[in-house]
Amino acid sequence: MLETDRNWLRRFRRNVTRWYGQHARDLPWRRSGDPYRIWISEIMLQQTTVAAVIPYFERFLNRFPTLTKLAAAPENEVLRHWEGLGYYSRARNLHKTAKRLVNKGDARLPNDPAELIGLPGIGRYTAGAIASCAFDVRAPILEANTSRLYSRLVAFRGDPKSTAGQTQLWEFAERILPTKSPGQFNQALMDIGATVCTPEDPKCKPCPVRSCCQAFAENAQSEIPVAKKRPQIKQLTEATVAVWKNGSLLLRQRQAGEWWAGLWDFPRFRLDNSPSSKKGKRRGRGNGSATVDPRLATELCTAVADQTGINAAGHEFLTELRHTVTHHRIRLLCFSASYQGGRLKVGRHQQWVPVASLAGYPLSTTGREVANLVGNAQP
User: Fold this and answer.
1) How confident is the model over 317-331, as pLDDT tens digits?
2) Residues taking part in catalysis
3) pLDDT at 291
4) Most C-beta atoms within 10 A of its C-beta, which of 47, 160, 166, 324?
5) Backbone angles phi, psi at 238, to 5 degrees
6) Helix (H, G, I), strand (E, B) or coil at 272
7) How are beta strands 328-342 and 310-325 bridged, if at all?
């Protein structure tokens, strides 16, 4: 195997280190080496690109500059500063970890990967990244970019996410990691994977480890790693209703088991059919009011009552939003309505919120769009 060849390993490490000295990405969490900043960045980078993370990272650190301040903040405020980044369990796990460490009397992250893995939201990769990049502990890493790079280096033609694939690639990651500056070396590997050894059209000509790559030697870069099967996309139609009462809007906090758990949203539910709304003349609310089919209006009334306990009427169509959640492509029909009586169901985490206070609530992305749409159109 390539990874047992000492000459190969020496050449590989030398080329990686030289390349990084000239091409390292200037990322805000790398500038100080602060374990707290590195931890925040690694959690944000789970399932999210670097370009998308940077502005969120800077805003988050501006509000929560230390682990102690993060622990002291209300969860709602943490979620509000995470709003739009998605995968909100990451934010809740950050908050849980901060509180746990502070409550133990040690407002610092441990440097032992085994201890890090015991904290909420930290798996083997994240533990290795924090330990190596923040504390220069010799801990291997394996994430999307390095998994692709390693697979090509050893010409692994199996599924890198399979048990066998994970075992082989983690062993490879362990072997190639030097004892000197392992954190910088791991960062170099991630940068090569992200900017050179890309999923499509890898830049093999300028690649610093081309001479060490078995896939390049076999001209198999486009075949490795094995192509993932595309998940089947499910089409859904949902509705959300902004219900008005004396200048306030009804919000409910989404619960465990729902998408965006912990965030607030307007009453929202799935529609059995795929109704269409016939847009009418604009009447000063949203981007256009519309006549709602009587059957749809009845379905909306029933769904709002079942979910919240109140009655709403006078539904008006506001807009249609399209978005994707995991393997679901959603058509979201947005309506406004007026409170007509009834009492909110107990234990549903619902409340009437003045329009001026909406900005302080962490909302789902679509919930924020609806809030912005209706906020300036109070009836």
Assistant:
1) 999 999 988 889 999
2) 42
3) 66
4) 160
5) -130, 165
6) coil
7) antiparallel
